[in-house]
Amino acid sequence: MEYDRLIFIKKRKKVGLAGWWGGKNEGDLYILKTLKRTFNKEFRLSIINIPFQGDPRTIEYLNTLDFLIIGGGGLFTLYFPSPFGTYNEWGESLKTPFGFLGIGVQEIDEKMTGILANILNRSAFFSVRDTDSYNIVRNISDRVEKTYDLAFLYPRKIRARTGGNKIGVNLRIWDFDENRTYDNDRWCRAINNLKYEKVKIPLSFLKDIDDRVAMKDIAARNSRIFNIKLYNQTGIMVGMRLHSLIFAVQNGIPPIGISYAPKVERFFDDMDLKEFCLGINEYGRLYDLIEKAEDNKERIKTALDRYNNNANMAVSEHIDNVIDVIKNI
To answer: Which of 34, 81, 133, 311 could form a disulfide with 128 if both were Cys (CB 3.0 to 4.6 A apart)?
Structure first.
């Protein structure tokens, strides 16, 4: 019996999971947890942090894998995730088959379309998490699939939701660049002026982009760590980080987004709730939008239920297909 078990383990393919795993971001960490929970049953896993190098030593290691999964999360922002921006320089030396799973694509510079086309041609699969990402990649190749954020495979639900009435808040550091117009102080003042109690929900704890620093001036108890139970106190969630909003949606909590990056607005577009997403400087509209969310909770709940069901089914089916692809490649 023990011999048979060892033979089974040895036969399992070795699969690399490459993503933003080192940033101490609860959203990315939950995606990693989800992928490990899913693929551990089928494969031997190797966790790889992005960025990594496309140097010969790294490629030599990647070539010991049977398959490489890149994603999920917002990997393609203004730039390609390193080292895929230089894929044409080292791609031929990578013999291991690979695929991109449940990623976001913010934009593709015209000068980079040839590189992405080569990546798409080599990928066993290339799936994206929102409609705009799909349309961007579809203009380059039809080898792209539309799914949802991978966090919807195992929704992060509160075990016994009692229904809170506080305003959940997540802000992130975004004014560290002189070219960015985000005003954290004004957002904090706008949130403090709301008549409701607040609960701060940080998702990132990395030095220089610690959410707790961004929210230090909000009049509410500080949360040293992330805890999904904080959502139990929350009746409406105001968030910048995408997964602060995704976790709210998974628990049926009306979300109000602050669109510091296109992925936030896209999330609301795909839920048919674009009216509840604020621009980066629209702190003056926050109070009225909170009141609108209060007045439209039933309509919002219907939209959230529909999106949650569609996302869970689509991601589950897609993951099953990915497992089949890897097993049969």
So the answer is: 133
CA distance linking residue 125 with residue 69, whole number of Å: 9
Q: Could you give the domains of the chain?
A: 2-147 (3.40.50.2300), 166-309 (3.40.50.2000)
Q: Which pairs from 288-297 meet CB under 8 Å and 24+ separation?
A: 289/256, 290/167, 290/194, 290/196, 290/236, 290/238, 290/256, 293/236, 293/254, 293/256, 294/236, 296/254, 297/254
Q: What percent of the chain has pLDDT over 90?
A: 89
CB 290 within 8 A of CB 236: yes
Residue 266's pLDDT is: 98
**Comparing 2-16, 59-73, 129-143, 201-215, which segment has the lowest mean pLDDT?**
2-16
Q: Taking CA 226 as the corner, what is the angle to CA 220 and CA 232, rounded to the nearest 5 degrees?
A: 65
The values of phi and psi at residue 67, to 5°, are -160, 150
Count CB neighbours of 300 within 10 A.
22
Mean pLDDT of all residues in 34-55: 96
Comparing CA positions, the residue from 3, 58, 14 lying closest to residue 40 is 14
Distances (CA, A) of 278 to 114, 217, 245: 35, 21, 13
Question: Model-level pTM greater than 0.90?
Answer: yes
Which helix (H) or strand (E) is 110 found in, with range? none
What is the pLDDT at residue 11? 81
